[in-house]
Amino acid sequence: MEKFDLVVIGAGPSGYAAAMRAVDFKKKTLLIEKNKVGGAGVTNGALSSKTWWELSRETAYFRKNLKRFNLEVPSINYSEIQSEVRRAVEERKVMLGDHIHLMHDSHHAELLFYKRGTAKLISQNEIEIDTGNYAKEKIWAENIILATGSRPRYLEELPIDEKIVMTSDGIEDMDDFPESMVIVGAGVIGCEYATIFSGFGKTKVHLIDKGSRILPFEDDDIVRVIERNMENSGVLIHRNSRLIRMEIKYGRVEYELEYDDGGKEVFNVQKALVAVGRTPNYEDLWEDNVEISISKRGIEDNDTQTNISNIYAVGDITADISLVNVGELEGRYAVEKIFGSPARKLMYENISTIMFLNPEVASVGLNETHAREKGIDYKVVTLDYSCIPRAIAKRNTQGFIKLLVTNDSQMKILGLKVVGNHASSAIQAVALLISMDKGIEELAECVHPHPSITEGIQECVRVLLGKSLFKPSALRDKVTCRTSIAGVYQDIKF
User: Fold this and answer.
1) Is the N-terminal amide bond of 178 cis, ω within 30° of 0?
2) pTM for the full model?
3) Residue 159: is the preceding peptide bond cis (ω within 30°)?
4) CATH number, domain at 87?
5) How confident is the model at residue 36 (pLDDT cuts 50, 70, 90)?
């Protein structure tokens, strides 16, 4: 029986990162994957959906500016767009696969090994690998990392066939833009796909929202911008509604809603997308004698370590945040915990995120909703994109920057939200300062490139310090600075 210092089960973002980090420690490592290298971070997930979003955004921008080119609205070639997405996915998969193979021809050849197959823990250290054609082998591992990811959550009452009623696993296999589509779920995934398909201008999108507004975890000012843009793009948002029936009839989707006021309504569309979260992949991953603790959300872990001391869990399989960057962080951290001594405890407070909506929304740390839920008093400054030269040059000043700091003299950074063009490129320095538990002085004197969106962050800091270029008292509709104490707002006067 071959022995390894570490066996990583799953070659998605978290498992791949873990295996490569183990190589740095000169440990004999086996990476096992039953399907495709890259996992949902590449296929039917982060990379593919974001490629769809980029192409949708390009299409919407071009359509908006046709007058510049003296053109009529052109037709859209679905097959070409679909092929472009698949080329992007394949490009990434090939690179990841080639990297593994090239490692075998390098000085790491005796450290990293890769096997295609389905793995199952038969004891705390033994793993059985089914490589197909009734072939199985057993290996021994000093340490094990479980990184088998997640899959779209199914609702048993819905007729999901991945052709007419689909999840994100099936939606990219359509042969053309549907003329209409209902999306079940108004969280991040549902809203991203609503943005994508409405952006192409070929699909009437319906979005079912059981609450009074989409994205219930977000601040009201952000949601207002996203909802307005969706509806301007033709999205029908079913607010305060509950899906009570969905059927496939004559190759189409018929669904019935019940509203909070008791009224009911029936709709008919060509396709349906179910986007109600994801489910961790841990079924049949271990024998009954391997008693790993799980909850409804996933494997329970303490700083990536399960209740079995030599078995770790990272990425979507756990009950933590399900994001590619978080999965990679956890994979690396687990290896450092096994073979070394991490410089600091794993923390999630400075995790940067981005929602691919219209416009894009990037964030790090707390938003106002979460700060109020935690009973935290804070100061908040908001700066409209129309105050930022780069946004003006882009001819798109829709958006704003919002910075939250502690309500004291230190003004330590609690969180940042950027809504608008280039949002994702504007938050990394703030993420670093949050992890360092720093205040805002470091941002105040930083010389930013001009013109850039990050200049807006600097202006927010200067507002808080009372030395801004634009004064809130003069530009009340563009710049605001307030305190929130026990949930009550009050303008700050300088």
Assistant:
1) no
2) 0.92
3) no
4) 3.50.50.60
5) confident
User: What's the rounded mean pLDDT across residues 33-52?
Assistant: 87
DSSP-assigned states of every residue in 47-101: HHHHHHHHHHHHHHHHHHTGGGGT-PPPP--HHHHHHHHHHHHHHHHHHHHHHHH
The per-type count for the chain, helices as H runs and strands as E runs, is 11, 26
Please name the residue that has the structure tokens 């938003």: 367
The 10 Å Cβ neighbour count of residue 67 is: 7
**367 and 419 co-located in one domain:** yes
**Going edge to edge, which strands form the sheet with 264-269?**
241-249, 252-259, 264-269
Residues 175 and 216 in one domain: yes
Encoded amino acid at 2, one letter: E
Residues 102 and 12 in one domain: yes
Mind listing the pLDDT tens digit for each residue in 251-299? 999 999 999 999 999 999 999 999 999 999 999 999 999 999 998 788 9
Residue among 218, 208, 212 nearest 186 (CA): 208
- DSSP designation for 154: P
CA distances from 307 to 126, 303, 304 (A): 17, 11, 10
